[in-house]
Structures are given as C-alpha cells and as structure tokens.
C-alpha cells in the first residue's frame, strides 16, 4: 500500500505569486479573490520577468511573453535551490480558484503519494484520448502531459535539481513554451510506470487532481493576448477523454442510407468531422480522417481488420475524443459514419463505454448488396469496387456484426431508422432523430436537413 503524506503539517514552505510590475491591476484583483480559508503560507509577490524588456536568445521562437514566463519560473526554482527552500507552490496572477478550494485541496493532498515531486493544481491534459491520466486514488491521477503553468507545487531538493536540469537543457522544441517542455518531463514517468517503456532520462513523480482546483481568470493573457469570459477550467483527469459527452455512430452496410443520415446530422449541426467526403455527389458525410483510419485497419472489401484490437480501439478513441472536444467547443455533439464501423463497433464500445450512442440505419440487405454490386460494376478498377461475391460477403458481415453487437448490448442507446421511412416521411423521422441527439437546431438547419433527403432514393429499396 502506497504511503501517503500527512496533512497535519504545512503543505509547502513558501507560496509565490508571479506578477509583472506593469500589471498592478492583476495583483490587486488576485489578492481580492483568493479563498478564505487560505491553506498555504502568505503569498509572496515575485517580480516576473517582462519579456518586452529583455533580449531573447536567437534560438527562442516562442515569443517574448513566453520567454518571460519561462525565465520567471526558472528563477523561482533557482531561488529555492539557493535558499534551501524544500517545497513551494507558485501561482501566476491569472489563477482563479474552485469553490471550497481549501477543502478540495485537503482531499487531494491527503491522497498524494509520498514520492510526489510536482503536483499540479490547475492545467490542461494533453493527448488524453490516446494517453488518459492514470488513476492512483479517488482524488489523484498520474497525468501523461499537462499544459499550462498557472498553479503547481514542487517538493524535494533532488526533484528540484532534476527539474532545474530539465528546464536548462537545450533540447527545447521550436516555438515551445515552458509548459510544453515540462510536459515532456511528465511523460517520462507515465511511459515508464503506465506503459512499461524503458526510459533512460531523469524523471520525477508528477500528479494531478481528479478535478482541477485552479483555473484561469477571465483576464487578457500576457502571452497569447486572448481573454476568456469566465474562469476557465480545462479537461479534468477523471474526464480528460470527455467520457461524459456522447458520440453518435451511424451504423449500416454500404449503400444502406447511412450517407443520407450522416448528411442530415451534419445539416442539423452535429460535428461529423472537419473534412467530409464520400461517394455520394450530394455528400457522403464521411470524415476523411475516419475513413483513412478505417481503411488502414481493414482495406475494402476485407471483412476482418489487420490491426490489433488494442491498437484499433486506441486509434478510434483518439480520433473520437478529439472530435468530442471540438464539438464541446462548438456547443454541439459529435458523430461519425463509415460502413467499417459496423465491424468495429465492439472496438468503439471498448474505447467509449457508455458514451457510445448508435444510429442504426435499416435497409433490406439484398437491396444494399445489389446497390454495392452496381456501384462496383460502374467503377471497375477503382479501389472501392469489388466482385459480386466480395460485395455479398462484405455486406452480410457488416450487418451481422452490427446486429450481434446490439443484441449483446441492450444497454446501449439505439435509434433505428428505416431508410424507406426516412425517404417517405423525412420530417417525422428527422424530428425524432433530433430528440435522440438531444440538440436544438435552428429552423434553417432543420429545413436544410429535410431538403437533403431525396425521395427518389427509395427506388433503390
């Protein structure tokens, strides 16, 4: 059992607040909003380096503001090493706090493993789709890579030396900031302990809370110049992969009406991907990136993937988590369509769990087979053409995998669309689809979705 640090002594020896001389306004605002009770030593203002007033090295490409931020953090660390300060917490003057900060901090610190060297209080988890934070306890996670430096704690002289050496090595990537460079240090321990890789460089134990305790205040950034509308808390460790956001997978064999449904969803405002393509002249509703991923895993007209289950699950999840984040930014939901997903639906479920929602497009399988055979006949020699036997085998395989999954997982939310009914009564079907998606499209979006449905499509059924 991992030893935990005691809470009956001060969490850290010193508390620093980084603040530029020209930003007295932010100093005043920050001091006025710090929580009561305050669980740290009294904040000591640290005069931050003003990147506008110093000369940056020729190799630095990240901007003057980023240089000042890096040098300020490095000088605080240097001060602690010289003065034999064994632990400290540092806040940038745009740090804002969660409700019940002292209580939430106590829960986090009480569970911190005894080896902690750097403990983030606020930040942003990067690459969380592919490398989700690893749960240590209820309130503590081991992150893969944390962005932003507005609030963190450091402890232990040896840890400080490792951190100091890392910040002064010359292997910085072009245009990277201090938080990017720290992120690579954080990755080492994760790669070693979570992924079992051999890491031959120095590392320290880095942890993050299950939910961020410190966000960024709605003030204009000294580095990027952006301003938020309210205190901004980024993706939490326990939800870094947006597991609470749904993903709507459109499932159906080739030529079953899935392209029409996907484009209806696109017109309704569902985020189906950043670049849509597909066979249909009116739009196939297929994200290019998702199509490429699926074809790499199972080249048409194959019926089984050549990629390992683990790798396929991870790549699908990584693509989807990014789309979820983009959808969340745009205040909508994410979806995806490609026929291969019928075969990969178990992989989707393994990666997404209960956040997977299914839109099953139903069409007579014989009609879908004939349609794919006709398409192939028109495009002999193209990569998306197959002989009649291959078309038959592929279509039946896709449908069987989808239907077997839905039978096996009755807990999954499913919306079934009869393609013939969609082309006959588009308004009614689309209204029910909107309810299933839980979105509120505009009247113009609904009209565009209805107009996309071509009643002539039913002749193929």
Automatic annotation (TrEMBL):
<feature type="domain" description="Glycosyl transferase family 25">
    <location>
        <begin position="64"/>
        <end position="131"/>
    </location>
</feature>
<protein>
    <recommendedName>
        <fullName>Glycosyl transferase family 25 domain-containing protein</fullName>
    </recommendedName>
</protein>
<dbReference type="Pfam" id="PF13469">
    <property type="entry name" value="Sulfotransfer_3"/>
</dbReference>
<dbReference type="Pfam" id="PF01755">
    <property type="entry name" value="Glyco_transf_25"/>
</dbReference>
<dbReference type="InterPro" id="IPR027417">
    <property type="entry name" value="P-loop_NTPase"/>
</dbReference>
<dbReference type="InterPro" id="IPR002654">
    <property type="entry name" value="Glyco_trans_25"/>
</dbReference>
């Amino acid at each position: 059992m991992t030893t935990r640090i005691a809470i009956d002594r001060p969490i850290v020896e010193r508390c620093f607040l980084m603040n530029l001389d020209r930003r007295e306004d932010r100093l005043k605002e920050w001091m006025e909003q710090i929580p009561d009770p305050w669980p740290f030593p009294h904040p000591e203002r640290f005069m931050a380096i003003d990147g506008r007033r110093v000369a940056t090295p020729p190799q630095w490409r990240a901007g003057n503001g980023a240089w000042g931020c890096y040098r300020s953090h490095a000088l605080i660390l240097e001060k602690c090493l010289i003065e034999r300060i064994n632990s400290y917490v540092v806040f940038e003057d745009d740090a804002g706090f969660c409700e019940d900060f002292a209580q939430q901090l106590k829960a986090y610190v009480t569970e911190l493993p005894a080896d902690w060297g750097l403990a983030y209080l606020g930040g942003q988890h990067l690459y969380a789709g592919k490398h989700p934070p690893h749960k240590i306890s209820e309130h503590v996670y081991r992150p893969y890579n944390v962005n932003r430096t507005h609030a963190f704690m450091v402890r232990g002289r040896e840890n400080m030396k490792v951190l100091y050496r890392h910040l002064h090595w010359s292997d910085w990537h072009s245009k990277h900031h201090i938080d990017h460079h720290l992120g690579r240090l954080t990755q080492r321990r994760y790669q070693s302990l979570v992924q079992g890789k051999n890491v031959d460089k120095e590392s320290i134990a880095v942890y993050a809370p299950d939910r961020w305790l410190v966000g960024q205040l709605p003030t204009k950034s000294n580095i990027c110049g952006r301003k938020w509308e309210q205190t901004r808390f980024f993706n939490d460790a326990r939800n870094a992969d947006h597991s609470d956001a749904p993903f709507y997978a459109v499932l159906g064999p080739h030529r079953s009406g899935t392209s029409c449904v996907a484009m209806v969803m696109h017109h309704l405002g569902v985020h189906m991907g950043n670049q849509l393509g597909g066979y249909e002249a009116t739009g196939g509703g297929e994200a290019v990136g998702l199509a490429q991923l699926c074809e790499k895993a199972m080249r048409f007209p194959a019926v089984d993937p050549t990629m390992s289950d683990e790798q396929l699950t991870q790549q699908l999840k990584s693509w989807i988590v990014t789309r979820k984040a983009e959808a969340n930014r745009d205040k909508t939901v994410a979806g995806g369509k490609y026929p291969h997903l019928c075969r990969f639906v178990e992989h989707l479920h393994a990666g997404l769990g209960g956040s997977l929602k299914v839109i099953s497009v139903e069409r007579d399988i014989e009609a879908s087979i004939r349609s794919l055979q006709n398409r192939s006949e028109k495009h002999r020699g193209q990569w998306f053409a197959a002989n009649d036997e291959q078309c038959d085998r592929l279509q039946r395989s896709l449908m069987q995998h989808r239907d077997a999954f839905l039978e096996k997982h009755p807990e999954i939310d499913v919306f079934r669309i009869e393609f013939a009914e969609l082309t006959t009564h588009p308004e009614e079907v689309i209204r029910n689809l909107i309810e299933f998606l839980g979105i509120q499209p505009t009247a113009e979006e609904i009209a565009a979705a209805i107009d996309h449905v071509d009643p002539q499509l039913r002749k193929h059924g």
